[in-house]
Input
Amino acid sequence: MIAIPRGPVRGTALVCLLALGAAGCGLSAELDRERNPERRPTPSPTRTTPSPVPTFTAVPSPSPSASVPVQRAEGCPASGVRYSTGAVDGAMGLRAMTLTLTNCGERSYRLRGYPYLEVLDDTGEPIPAVRSVQGTDQVPMAPEDPGPKTVTLAPGESARAGLYWRMAAEDGVYLRVGPGDGSTPTNVRLPEPLDIGPENVLGTTAWTSAEGAPGQYR
Output
């Protein structure tokens, strides 16, 4: 039996491995040249950072000012009448609210026609170019005005008028209200702002006897 020296075999194997590695590198380079003949760098995959979710800050409604004189919260004013407003109702851009006048005095109170109205901002100043008009013809989609009648209210009885306007951007915080007979008007703080300004029309219906109150028509 002939003994084969181990040293040369190991050397030969090492040479083969180096040759295969070189061939593999050459083949890889050749394939890369075929895929990218202009030798442009192969782009590496990049990670995209998701965009932050936008956040929205609510714009606070204007707050009433303590310096604006308003109707007393309790008791009966010297005029003998108190005013109150209902909630704002809205659909398809039309806004509606009920204005109520209550005879809190000890004598009968007679009304005829339409209320006197001005819409005021949070400082008590009229909102520019907001016009109060008698009737609802100038407010699109508003219901028909029944027309003026004389209403006589006994003590404790009430009359009401409907207020209508189209939605706008600027809020009214107060109403300056009068019965419409030339009496001094009163500032009433609204339970919720009216989105009526800066240029708009506030249509009003005539005073009528409030539902459930036996006010007499004459």
Notes: Residues 1-27, 53-59, 213-218 have pLDDT under 50 and may be disordered. The helical segments are 6-35. The longest helix spans residues 6-35.
